[in-house]
Amino acid sequence: MRVPSPASLPLACLATLLAACSGNVREAAPANPAVAIAPVEVPAVAHPQGETAAWWYRSGAAHAAANGAMGGRARNVIVFLGDGMSLTTVAAARILAGQRAGNPGEEHLLSWERFPATAFAKTYNTDAQTPDSAGTMTAIATGVKTHIGAIGVSAGGHDDCAQSLGNHLQGWLALAADAGMGTGIVTTARLTHATPAATYAHVPNRGWESDASLPAAARAAGCSDIASQFIDFVRERGAPQVVLAGGAREFLPDEEVMPGVRGKRRDGRNLVAEWQALNPGGAFVHDTRQFEAARGKSPVLGLFESSHMQYEHDRDRGPDGEPDLEAMTRFAIETLSRQPGGYVLLVEAARIDHAGHEGNAYRALDETTAMSRAVQAAVDMTSADDTLVVVTADHSHVLSFAGYPRRGNPILGKVHEDGDGPALDALGLPYTTLSYANGPGYRDASADEAGVQPAVGRPDLTDVDTTEPDYLQEAMVPLEAETHGGDDVGIWARGPGSAAFRGTLEQNVIYHVIVQATPALRGQLCEAGACNADGVPVELPSIDALVPAAH
Ligand SMILES: [Zn+2]
Fold first, then answer.
1. For residue 357, how far is its CA from the centre of ligand 1 (angstroms)?
2. Cα separation of 379 and 333, whole Å?
3. At what angle do helices 519-527 and 509-516 cross, to 10 degrees?
4. Does the structure show a pLDDT above 50 at 288?
5. Can you give 373-395 as a three-state secondary structure string?
6. What's the pLDDT score for residue 504?
7. Integer distance in angstroms from the first to the last C-alpha of the chain?
């Protein structure tokens, strides 16, 4: 049923009406008559066959609207993505941060754990129970769940370029740029890696980072590599104003273009030079010295490493090194705050995921604490009155937090239940609080042996310092790389529209809360004909209708 326009009804009557409707909406929206809207009807479909891109878009819109996202009036949006940041990783990282501050640790909170709104996200891809970063970030960035490995395209064949050309999805970064808002990307991964790529590129296979990894058949069918699509985005939109990342090699030709960086491209293009030609007043930076000198300039492109940026634990903190996530976040917010129409910024702590794959809890937790500092900086530099800050993860990892360690036990240490030495397993051996279900830590404490041998019992950790940064936690199943987990991840939010983040949400709902809570973004969608009578973007927008504005 439609709810009549609130303006035509006395308030008491409206209250009665909303109560009468409550069977239809999933959850009463916050008490704000201005957002009384009709429930969005979603057709029942067979799963997974009936899950078209249009169905995912509409069902995500319905849930966000039912949770009251249309009541948001966000001017700015900052999305923090902890890649692979499982809830177990959050719990262990908060204790590490607390213990580093000299406290028992359990009572500590990471910066985003003080946010008023929380929810769970179901992370599966359309074809995968345990997902990858490409499919999950596409859901977060475009409102449509898709196949594992997909970047900015709806579900289809993993290597089917021709099919993917008709499946392009528009994310909030492009919508923001087209609406005249400022835009930014900060990540410790390669700029062409799955998470950042899903905000600007469209390929069915995340591996197509440069032309060197783009199959000839895909090129012949009309697909281009992710790095060249970044330059297309810059050329078409005059955005983003700030990009700070790793991954210079994907943008440079196969020669030593800058010290220590040999490009991977085979087409001879130097995309950094192309970016500079498009942005004669901008600054390209490659180390901390150049980064600091670029303050006040716009646009700024920073590519600090050939591949991913260094782990926080390992990075060079001097002028020839690279900045940390907090410094890059501050820089981006300073730059984008000068934009007259507000901004949308993605900040990714990418290497939580990589440390997990390496079976190295120390760096996974340390990277998480680095993101906590970056989120705190964003909170300090913005107002909850106009800036929506969303913190989430794309997927989980198989880190386990186990045993009965006593209060204040070192989170990276062996389990101690009391003061009389470590707790012992059935074999009489000590064990750590943290371990992985699979990965390289199977063989022994250091996993530095060549090859994998059947384990007999467990390694004796009695004389092993498990808190040492390079220690690899034990793993039950031997795999070269530890895997993602299929369990839910957290969403934490503050600012306009954040109250819509509650309950258990399909991951694509995150996009819909963001666009519904940000008038400039949903206005862009309504102009493209995607909105219903209540102004809710419910129809999968045609990418052709979303034409970049002249800049
Ligand atoms: Zn991963």
1. 7
2. 11
3. 100
4. yes
5. HHHHHHHHHCCCCCEEEEEEECC
6. 98
7. 43
Share of the chain above pLDDT 70, in %: 90
Q: For the purposes of burial, counting CB atoms within 10 Å of the CB of 38, is it exposed (0-12), middle (13-18) or buried (19 or more)?
A: middle
Predicted confidence (pLDDT) at residue 551 exceeds the cutoff of 60: no
Q: How close is the Cα of 132 to the center of ligand 1, in Å?
A: 6
In the structure encoding, which two tokens stand for residue 529, read together? 């004909």
**Mean pLDDT to the nearest integer, 265-279:** 98
Distance of CA 322 to the CA centre of its chain: 21
Q: How high is the pLDDT of residue 542?
A: 84
Long-range contacts for 208-214 (Cβ within 8 Å, ≥24 apart)? 209/247, 209/250, 210/249, 210/250, 210/251, 210/264, 210/265, 211/265, 211/266, 211/267, 211/269, 212/254, 212/264, 212/265, 212/266, 213/264
Ligand 1 midpoint to CA 212 (Å): 22
Distance from C-alpha of 99 to C-alpha of 122, rounded to nearest angstrom: 31
352 CA → ligand 1 middle, Å? 9
- CA–centroid distance, 75 to ligand 1, in Å, is 32
Q: Is 44 a residue whose pLDDT tops 80?
A: yes
**Residue 391, strand partner residues:** 80, 492
CA of 282 to the centre of ligand 1 (A): 33
Q: Is the pLDDT of residue 232 over 90?
A: yes
Alpha-carbon span 287 to 32, nearest angstrom: 49
Residues contacting 7, CB < 8 A, separation 6+:
none
Q: What is the pLDDT of residues 356-384, one digit of tens each?
A: 999 999 999 999 999 999 999 999 999 99
How many angstroms separate the CA atoms of 124 and 471, rounded? 31
Listed in sequence order, the residues at least 6 apart from 163 whose beta carbon sits closer than 8 Å to its beta carbon are 156, 157, 204
Residue ranges near ligand 1 (ion) with Cβ within 5 Å:
353
Q: Which of 133, 224, 372, 396 is catalytic?
A: 133
Q: How many CA atoms lie within 13 A of 384 on its CB side?
A: 11
Across the range 494-498, mean pLDDT stands at 98
Q: How far is the CA of 350 from the centre of ligand 1 (A)?
A: 9
How far, CA to CA in Å, does 469 sit from each of 82, 88, 473, 476? 20, 19, 11, 21
**Distance between CA atoms of 160 and 48, rounded to whole angstroms?**
20
Q: Identify the pLDDT of residue 195.
A: 98
Output the pLDDT for position 29: 40
Q: Is 133 a catalytic residue?
A: yes
Q: What are phi and psi of 93, to 5 degrees?
A: -70, -35
| Whole-angstrom distance, CA of residue 401 vs CA of residue 89 | 9
- Is residue 313's pLDDT more than 90? yes
Determine the distance separating the centroid of ligand 1 and the alpha carbon of 229, expressed in angstroms.
Answer: 23
Distance 494 CA to ligand 1 centre (A): 27
Count other C-beta atoms under 10 Å from residue 527's C-beta: 15
| H/E element, 27 | none
Please state the rounded mean pLDDT for residues 5-25.
36
pLDDT digits (tens, 9 = 90+) for 403-414: 999 999 999 999
Ligand 1: centre distance to CA 354 (Å) = 6
Average pLDDT, the chain: 92
Residue that has been written with the tokens 């609080």 in this structure: 433
